[in-house]
C-alpha cells in the first residue's frame, strides 16, 4: 500500500473518531435528560477530553497530509496516548458506565489502527 493510500486511510480513521466523539457527546446530552443515572461526572470528563483531541487530531492530520513530519509524529503520539488512556480507563471497575466502556473499546481500536498506519507511513519515509 502506498503512503498516499495510508494517509487516506488514516484520515478516514480520524474522521470516524470525530464522529464517535460527536455521537458520544450527543448521547450524554440526551441521557442527561432522559436517563441521568447513565451519565456520570467521569463520563462527562472523559467526553470533554476526547472532544479536545477530536479537534486537535484533524488539525495535526492536515499538517501531516501537507508533508509535515511533525504533524504525522503528533498524530502518532496523540493516537498512542488515546489508546493507552482508553484501555486503562476501561479496566477501572465502575469508573464509567457500561455503554461508555463499549464506546471506549471502539476508540481504542481506532487509535490502534491509527498508530499502525502512522508507523507504516513513517517507515516508508526512511
Measured as a percent range, the helix fraction is over 70%
| Strand content bin | under 5%
Rg, rounded, reads: 16 Å
The dominant shape is elongated
Q: Alpha-carbon distance between the termini?
A: 16 Å
The tally of helices reads 4
Sheet/helix structural class: mainly alpha
Q: Please tell me the overall pLDDT.
A: 93
Largest sheet: none
- In terms of per-residue confidence, which ranges show pLDDT below 50 for 5 or more consecutive residues? none
Order of helices and strands: HHHH
Please report the total strand number as a whole number: 0
How does this model look, in words?
With 126 residues, this protein is mostly helical. 86% of the residues lie in helices and 0% in strands. It has four helices and no strands. It has helices spanning 3-34, 41-65, 69-91, 98-125. The longest helix is centred in the first third of the chain and has 32 residues, at 3-34. The protein is elongated, with a radius of gyration of 16 Å. The chain starts with a helix and ends with a helix.
Ordered list of secondary-structure elements with their pairings:
Elements (H helix, E strand, L loop, with lengths): L2 H32 L6 H25 L3 H23 L6 H28 L1
Helix pairs in contact: 1-2, 1-4, 2-3, 3-4
Amino acid at each position: 500500500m502506498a503512503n498516499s493510500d495510508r494517509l487516506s486511510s488514516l484520515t478516514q480513521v480520524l474522521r470516524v473518531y470525530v464522529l464517535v466523539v460527536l455521537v458520544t457527546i450527543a448521547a450524554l446530552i440526551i441521557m442527561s435528560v432522559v436517563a441521568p443515572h447513565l451519565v456520570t461526572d467521569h463520563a462527562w470528563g472523559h467526553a470533554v477530553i476526547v472532544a479536545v483531541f477530536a479537534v486537535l487530531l484533524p488539525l495535526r492530520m492536515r499538517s501531516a497530509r501537507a508533508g509535515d513530519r511533525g504533524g504525522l509524529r503528533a498524530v502518532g503520539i496523540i493516537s498512542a496516548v488515546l489508546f493507552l488512556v482508553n484501555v486503562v480507563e476501561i479496566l477501572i471497575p465502575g469508573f464509567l458506565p457500561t455503554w461508555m466502556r463499549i464506546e471506549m473499546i471502539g476508540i481504542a481500536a481506532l487509535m490502534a489502527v491509527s498508530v499502525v498506519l502512522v508507523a507504516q507511513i513513517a517507515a516508508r519515509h526512511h
